Amino acid sequence: MEIKLEPTSLNLSPQRKRSVPLLQTEYLIKQRPRLHAKLSWLTGSLVLGLSMIILFSFVWTFGIRLAFVSGESMMPTLKQGQLLILQPYRLWLGKTLKVGDIVVFDAPKGLPKKHYVKRLIAEPGDTVSIGQEGLYLNGKKQPTAFAGRPDTFPDLVLFQGQVIALEGYALADLPDYLKPLLAMLQPLPQDILNKSFTSPLEKVGSLKLAKDWYFILGDNLNYNASEDSRYFGPISRKNLLARVQPLNLNVQKYLGHFK
């Protein structure tokens, strides 16, 4: 028995068969511009967001920052809560620092991590000594007056013509932040060395600052009012974070802490 299937048995004419995929194609074609628009907007937003993050990071690292003073080590120049503009770009661009600049720097190696703000007193190549009479730069007494008892620096102990102690530490026990001083110590006169052959002799020496090393002090020169180069020695340029521009604006709620 033979069965013959007629085209009409599917109840779909050739025209109707073609109409279904045509309708789907037309729908997709109409939706594509909308999808492209959404994707373009999303891509543009992502690019803008990433650009803003990169720009902010660049400005924060190399541009200008704001901070506020905490402490009295830079009195009377900088007061508690005073606003500071930090200029790290000057260091990244290799700008030369000069004596008198106020700088922010990291604590030297071997000390608890924190930031300091002080004044640059001497630069590479300068000779520095702080005796009972005051501060000497390149052999000349400076007008800087220390209130109370000055912190002499660097304090040496000599024996048999050799330095055996520095700033109260035996050379074998020097903390990391004082070790660079050994290479900067200036030779002492022979008559002083001769006196140390009979018994240990205490003497204030002098330093010649090496390349990229700076001597810094707080403007508040009262005894123990400032932790500075009288305490931890010269500062390396790699520890410097920014040059400071003070603003005559005082706030009690502050964002950063520099002592």
Would you give an account of this structure?
This protein has one domain (63-250): Umud Fragment, subunit A (Ribbon). The protein is built from 4 helices and 15 strands. It starts with 13 loop residues before the first helix and ends in a 9-residue tail after the last strand. Helices cover 24% and strands 27% of the residues. The longest helix has 49 residues, at 14-62. The protein has 259 residues and is α+β, with helices and mostly antiparallel strands. A 7-stranded antiparallel β-sheet has the order 1-2-15-3-4-13-14. A 4-stranded antiparallel β-sheet has the order 7-6-5-12, with no helix packed on it.
Q: What strand order characterises the main sheet?
A: 1-2-15-3-4-13-14
Unreliable sequence segments: 1-10, 15-20, 54-62, 252-259
Strand content range: 25-35%
Would you identify the CATH architecture? Ribbon
Topology:
Elements (H helix, E strand, L loop, with lengths): L13 H49 L2 E4 L13 E6 L1 H4 L9 E5 L8 E8 L4 E5 L2 E4 L2 E2 L13 E5 L2 E5 L2 E2 L19 H6 L5 E4 L2 E2 L4 E5 L11 H4 L2 E2 L3 E11 L9
Which features does this protein show?
259 residues; Umud Fragment, subunit A; 7-stranded antiparallel β-sheet; 4-stranded antiparallel β-sheet; elongated; disordered N terminus; disordered C terminus
